[in-house]
């Protein structure tokens, strides 16, 4: 089984994005496996094990953060879908600004 963490970075202000709610779901369903909120360093860790060859969704509820930090909301919700391929730790960073975001497989 694999473990999971994520990180939200506010690229407009060059700092972590704290207090962003994040949900881990089974891909293609509304079944929530775990929830977390990013800490002061913009990080969240999930205390669950992920199965190999399964697909999951990380749902970042960014609306409140964007309204507070950018004064506008273009992406109120970001969903990142990913598949577990092996038994190692998975880290999914999201780089967020007022009108864009990107993500990648971190380490």
What does this structure look like?
This protein is mostly beta strands and 107 residues long. Helices cover 7% and strands 53% of the residues. The protein has one helix and nine strands, in the order E-E-E-E-E-E-H-E-E-E. It has one helix at residues 63-70; strands spanning 2-10, 15-16, 21-26, 32-37, 43-50, 55-61, 77-83, 90-97, 100-103. The strands form two sheets. Strands 1, 2, 5, 8 and 9 form a five-stranded mixed sheet that branches. Strands 4-3-6-7 form a four-stranded antiparallel sheet. Strand 3 and strand 4 form a beta hairpin. The mean pLDDT is 96.
Helix-strand blueprint:
Blueprint: E1 2-10, E2 15-16, E3 21-26, E4 32-37, E5 43-50, E6 55-61, H1 63-70, E7 77-83, E8 90-97, E9 100-103
Parallel strand pairs: 1-8
Antiparallel strand pairs: 1-2, 1-5, 3-4, 3-6, 6-7, 8-9
Throw out a few tags for this protein.
mainly beta, 1 helix, four-stranded antiparallel β-sheet, five-stranded mixed β-sheet, 53% strand
Compact summary:
Helix content is 7%, strand content 53%. The chain is mainly beta and 107 residues long.
Q: Could you say which overall geometry the principal axes of the C-alpha atoms support?
A: globular
Distance between the termini: 17 Å
The major pleated sheet works out as: 5 strands, mixed
Structural class, by secondary structure, is mainly beta
Order of helices and strands: EEEEEEHEEE
Helical proportion, percent range: under 10%
Helical stretch tally: 1
What is the β-strand count?
A: 9
Rounded mean pLDDT score: 96
Percent of residues in beta strands: over 45%
- Which segments are poorly predicted (pLDDT under 50) over 5 or more consecutive residues? none
Round the Cα radius of gyration to an integer and report it: 13 Å
């Amino acid at each position: 089984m694999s473990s999971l963490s994520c990180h939200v970075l506010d690229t407009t202000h060059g700092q972590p994005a704290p207090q962003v709610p994040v949900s881990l779901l089974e891909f293609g369903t509304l079944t929530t496996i775990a929830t977390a909120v990013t800490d002061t360093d913009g990080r969240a860790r999930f205390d669950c094990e992920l199965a190999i060859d399964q697909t999951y969704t990380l749902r970042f509820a960014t609306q409140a953060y964007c309204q507070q930090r950018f004064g506008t909301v273009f992406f109120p919700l970001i969903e990142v879908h990913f598949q577990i391929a092996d038994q190692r730790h998975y880290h999914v960073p999201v780089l967020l600004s007022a009108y864009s975001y990107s993500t990648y497989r971190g380490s």
